[in-house]
Specification:
The complex is a heterodimer of chains A (about 220) and B (about 260). Chain A has about 220 residues and is an all-alpha fold. Chain A contains twelve helices and two strands, in the order ααββαααααααααα. The radius of gyration of chain A is 17 Å and the shape is globular. In chain B, helix 4 crosses helix 6 and helix 9 packs antiparallel against helix 11. The chains are: A mainly alpha (about 220), B mainly alpha (about 260). Chains A and B meet through helix 2, strand 1 and helix 4 of A and helix 8 of B.
Chain lengths: ~220, ~260
C-alpha cells in the first residue's frame, strides 16, 4: 500500500509538472456571455459570504478565501459543485444557480483580488508546517507540497493557491477530502490529493494550515 | 450605586423629554409603563419612539415579577439596572428594546462600540442607545456583555405562525436563483450565532423585522455583510424570516 502511494505521489508530481508546462488554458479570458448586470449581481452574491475583498469569512462555518485563487481551479470547483462531484450542502445548490457562461468572469474577478490573509489560529505548529510544505514527510509518503502548489503557495491554473487561506477551512477540506471530492472529478485533479490527504495526520494538517494561511 | 440611580433618573427624564410616550395602564412594573409601545388604537404614527401601530410586546402574565427574580450581580458587579431599565428586568426584551439575555458577548460588545461611534444609526439606536453608552468604561461594557450572555434566553414566539415553514426553508436554504444567501452558514443551524455573529433564535418578531428592513433603508451600513444580505429580500420574505426566528426556542442548543 505504502509503496503504491509513494509511487503514485511521485508520478502525480511529474504529471502536475507536465500540466503546468502546457501553457494557458485561456479560460480566464472567456468574457461574460450573460448580461453584465447578471454577472455583477452574482459576484456580489458570492461576496456576501466570501467577503467583499474575497478574503473569506468566519461564519458558523469557515467560508474560504477566493482572492487570488487560480482561475482554472475556481472553474473546476464550480463545475464539480454543480455536477455533485464535489458535494457540500451549502455550495452545491449555489453553484447550480450559476450559468457556466459566467464561470470565466467570476473566476477572473476573484483571481485579480489581492487582499491580506484573514488570519485565525489552527492550533498547529507553523515551523513544522513549513518543513512539511518544503520537504514532505518521506517516511509516510507525503510529497513536498511546493512541488505542485509552488514555493510561494500561489498554485497555478488548476492547482489551487493555498497562501492566505483560512486555516480551519484547510483542515476541514483536507480531513474530508475523500467524502467530499472523492477520486472521480471529471478533470482528474482531485485524485492527485487523495494519497496526500490519506497520509497526513490531523496534527500535520494543522501544521501546514498554520504555515500557508500566513503567506501573502 | 448612587450614580446608577442618577443615570436611570436622568434617562427617564430624557425619555420623557424626547417626545410623547404613551403610557400603558398599570402593568405592575412602573418602569415598563414609561417605556411601552403605542397601543394599536393611538393614531400617532409619526412618533418615532412609539414604533409600529401594532402591539410590540406582551408582558408575561406575571408582569409584576419582582426585581429579586433577576440574579443580580454582587455589589461589585456591572450596573445592569442601567440596561434592564429598558431591556426588561430579566433582559428578555421590553417594548422596542431587544432581548439581551443569551446574546453573544462578543456581539454585544461590538454593538456597544457601534452605538458609541454612531455607526449604528437607525432611529431607535440613535434615540435610546447613543445616550446609554458614552460613559461606559470598556471594562464595564465587557462585564455587562458577559453578564447578559449568560442569562438564559426565552423565545418571544410572537410572529405569524402561518409563515414559519416558509421562513424555515428560507433560513436554511436561501434562494440561490434569486441571490438570497442561506443564513445557516453564518448564524448556525439553530440560529444560535457564534463569536461576534448574533444569536437570532427567539428574538422578537418586530425587532427582527425592523432590523432586516433597516439595512436596505441605508442605516448601519458598517454591519457587514447584513446590508448586502438583506438587499435581495422581499417584504414577505422578511416577514417569514422574522416569524420563523421568533418561535425558535434554543435553550437546549449549546452555546
Amino acid at each position: 500500500m505504502k509503496a503504491i502511494h509513494g509511487r503514485y505521489a511521485l508520478s502525480s508530481i511529474a504529471l502536475a509538472g507536465a500540466l503546468m508546462a502546457l501553457g494557458s488554458s485561456g479560460s480566464a479570458l472567456a468574457g461574460p456571455r450573460e448580461s453584465s448586470g447578471g454577472v455583477q449581481a452574482k459576484i456580489e452574491y458570492c461576496e456576501t459570504c466570501h467577503g467583499d475583498r474575497g478574503q473569506g469569512f468566519y461564519g458558523y462555518y469557515a467560508i474560504p478565501r477566493l482572492a487570488g485563487q487560480q482561475t482554472g481551479y475556481l472553474e473546476n470547483q464550480l463545475r464539480d459543485f454543480s455536477s455533485g462531484m464535489r458535494h457540500t450542502a451549502i455550495m452545491s445548490p449555489i453553484a447550480r444557480s450559476v450559468s457556466p457562461s459566467m464561470y470565466g468572469a467570476i473566476a477572473a474577478h476573484f483571481h485579480a483580488m489581492n487582499s491580506a490573509p484573514l488570519g485565525g489560529g489552527s492550533g498547529g505548529n507553523a515551523a513544522l508546517g513549513r518543513d512539511i510544505f518544503m520537504n514532505g514527510i518521506p517516511e509516510s509518503n507525503v510529497p513536498a507540497c511546493w512541488a505542485c502548489h509552488g514555493a510561494d503557495a500561489h498554485g497555478s491554473r488548476d492547482i489551487p493557491r493555498l497562501a492566505g487561506q483560512l486555516p480551519s477551512y484547510l483542515i476541514n477540506t483536507l480531513s474530508n477530502w475523500y467524502q467530499q471530492r472523492g477520486t472521480k472529478s471529471e478533470h482528474g485533479y482531485s485524485a492527485l490529493m487523495v494519497p496526500t490527504t490519506h497520509n497526513l495526520t490531523r496534527a500535520q494538517m494543522a501544521a501546514v494550515a498554520a504555515y500557508v494561511s500566513g503567506l501573502h | 450605586m448612587k450614580q446608577t440611580g442618577l443615570t436611570v433618573a436622568s434617562l427617564a427624564i430624557s425619555l420623557l423629554a424626547a417626545g410623547p410616550l404613551h403610557a400603558q395602564q398599570a402593568e405592575g412594573n412602573y418602569l415598563a409603563t414609561l417605556f411601552h409601545a403605542t397601543p394599536a388604537s393611538v393614531p400617532d404614527h409619526n412618533c418615532v419612539i412609539c414604533g409600529p401601530a401594532t402591539p410590540l410586546y406582551s408582558p408575561p402574565p406575571d408582569a409584576s415579577y419582582p426585581l429579586a427574580l433577576l440574579p443580580l450581580p454582587g455589589a461589585n458587579g456591572p450596573p445592569v439596572k442601567n440596561c434592564t431599565f429598558c431591556h426588561g428586568v430579566s433582559a428578555q426584551g421590553l417594548a422596542v428594546a431587544p432581548r439581551l439575555a443569551g446574546q453573544r458577548a462578543a456581539y454585544i460588545q461590538k454593538e456597544l462600540g457601534a452605538f458609541r461611534n454612531h455607526s449604528r444609526d437607525n432611529p431607535y439606536s440613535a434615540l435610546y442607545m447613543w445616550n446609554a453608552v458614552p460613559n461606559l468604561h470598556p471594562e464595564t461594557a465587557r462585564a455587562l456583555a458577559d453578564y447578559f450572555s449568560r442569562e438564559a434566553p426565552q423565545a418571544a414566539a410572537d410572529g405569524n405562525r402561518a409563515l414559519v415553514d416558509q421562513g424555515r426553508v428560507l433560513y436554511q436554504q436561501g434562494e440561490p436563483q434569486a441571490n438570497i444567501v442561506t443564513c445557516v452558514v453564518c448564524h448556525g443551524p439553530d440560529a444560535q450565532g457564534v463569536g461576534a455573529i448574533p444569536r437570532l433564535a427567539g428574538l422578537s418578531y418586530s425587532y427582527l423585522k425592523r432590523r432586516l428592513e433597516q439595512w436596505s433603508q441605508g442605516y448601519h451600513q458598517t454591519a457587514k455583510p447584513m446590508p448586502q444580505v438583506t438587499q435581495s429580500l422581499s417584504a414577505e420574505q422578511i416577514d417569514a424570516l422574522a416569524s420563523y426566528l421568533s418561535f425558535l426556542d434554543d435553550r437546549a442548543a449549546s452555546r
